[in-house]
Structures are given as structure tokens and as C-alpha cells.
Backbone:
């Protein structure tokens, strides 16, 4: 993994409660050469507690960006990985910290890469995980698996740094992967079309759409593939209007 890849990585903290955890996470990032921090609706920021716990990583806090929604925080990201200790009702492709670093090292293109960390007390919601290509789980004691937020950031940042030091990239050619925003627009378009043809009911579509998301998540759609799929949806919608 090159330093260019490290500069594309964004650590995203979703609704962090304790400002001290934000500062400690910034310190963990700077220790390992990461610099981009996005905060989604932090309870208290900026904060003297955050600055104190950053212990010299003030520059990370000063350049941190605060967002009101997760969608805005990851809008230009082609790879989104969500951390979780909870078992999900619908299984998600899983990565360990080490395989996560290897996946990031292989990521082609120039788009941003986001690693999400959820709330201290409850983690990421299912709806937030729907926006991720992978679920990242840190192996822990099964009887005590909840890690401190900053400790989790430290573990992942360390593995990313080790992948950099290894310097054994194996790059394969891909067209640019679709960004999070392009995927969300496609899913909305698909949902509208499936409603138009009567495949799903407006009030009973959540489970079906989550499984459809998971199907496309496994394939990692590229920008050109999104264009083809949305072209199919446009033709389908035009055909429906013609037949009415």
C-alpha cells in the first residue's frame, strides 16, 4: 500500500458521544499515518477534552469535517467498510482487520475509501451497514467483545500501516468502482422501477431491497456497469409509460 492510498482513507466516526474518544482516535490515526477524519453528528465537538486526548494530533482535529448525515460523509467513496461486533440478521461479507488492510491495498482508482465506526453504546444501524460493501469484525474475547472506540481505530490503523510497510501491492486492472452516491442513486432508481412493475409493495420492500443491496455489494459495481443498469431501468420505465 502506497502513501497515496493512505491519503485516500477516511476514518468516519458516527455520532460519537464522548469527545475524549474523538481525540484518542485522532491520536491513533496520526500514529499510523492517517490524516482524514469525518464526524457524523458528534455530540460534543470541538471540545477541550478531544484536544487533550489527541496529545499532539491537534492537526487531525483541526482538519476534521463534521457532517449532518452519513450519506454526505461518504458521498465520494468507492469502498465503504463498516465495523461491528454484533451479529447481523442478514449476513454481510466479512473482513478481519488484516484482510481489510489487504482489501484496501488492492483498491484501484483514485476514489476515497471510508472505514466506519459506530456509536460507543450501539454501533452502526442496519441501515448504515446497508451502505457498506463489507463488515469488519475485530476478533475478541466472545464473552467481552465490545472494544473502546479509539482502541478499535488503533487496531485498524495499525493493520493499514503494516500493509504500507509490507509494500507488496498486487494491482489488477478495473474500471473505476461506483461511488457511494452513485450506488444510492441506482438503488433509488431500482426501487422506483420495481414498484412501477408491481414487483414490490411500498410498505413491504425493506427486506427485499436489503437483499438486493447485498447481491450487488458482492459484485462491487463499476461506474460503467451502473450506467448500463440505469439505462435498462430507464428503458423499462419508458416501456411502462408507453403501454399505459
Residues:
Amino acid at each position: 500500500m502506497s502513501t497515496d492510498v493512505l491519503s485516500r482513507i477516511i476514518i468516519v466516526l458516527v455520532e460519537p458521544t464522548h469527545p475524549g474518544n474523538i481525540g484518542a482516535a485522532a491520536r491513533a490515526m496520526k500514529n499510523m499515518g492517517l490524516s482524514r477524519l469525518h464526524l457524523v453528528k458528534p455530540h460534543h465537538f470541538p471540545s477541550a477534552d478531544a484536544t487533550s486526548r489527541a496529545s499532539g494530533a491537534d492537526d487531525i482535529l483541526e482538519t476534521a469535517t463534521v457532517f449532518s448525515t452519513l450519506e454526505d460523509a461518504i458521498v465520494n467513496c468507492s469502498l465503504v467498510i463498516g465495523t461491528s461486533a454484533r451479529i447481523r440478521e442478514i449476513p454481510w461479507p466479512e473482513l478481519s482487520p488484516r484482510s481489510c488492510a489487504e482489501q484496501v491495498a488492492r483498491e484501484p482508482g483514485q476514489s476515497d475509501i471510508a472505514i466506519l465506526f459506530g456509536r460507543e453504546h450501539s454501533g452502526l444501524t442496519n441501515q448504515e451497514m446497508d451502505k457498506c460493501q463489507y463488515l469488519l469484525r475485530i476478533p475478541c474475547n466472545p464473552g467481552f467483545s465490545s472494544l473502546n472506540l479509539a482502541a478499535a481505530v488503533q487496531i485498524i490503523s495499525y493493520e493499514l500501516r503494516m500493509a504500507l510497510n509490507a509494500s507488496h501491492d498486487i494491482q489488477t486492472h478495473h474500471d473505476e468502482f461506483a461511488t457511494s452516491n452513485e450506488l444510492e442513486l441506482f438503488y433509488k432508481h431500482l426501487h422506483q422501477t420495481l414498484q412501477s412493475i408491481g414487483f414490490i409493495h411500498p410498505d413491504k420492500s425493506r427486506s427485499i431491497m436489503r437483499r438486493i443491496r447485498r447481491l450487488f455489494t458482492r459484485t462491487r459495481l463499476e461506474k460503467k456497469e451502473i450506467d448500463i443498469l440505469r439505462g435498462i431501468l430507464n428503458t423499462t420505465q419508458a416501456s411502462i409509460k408507453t403501454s399505459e
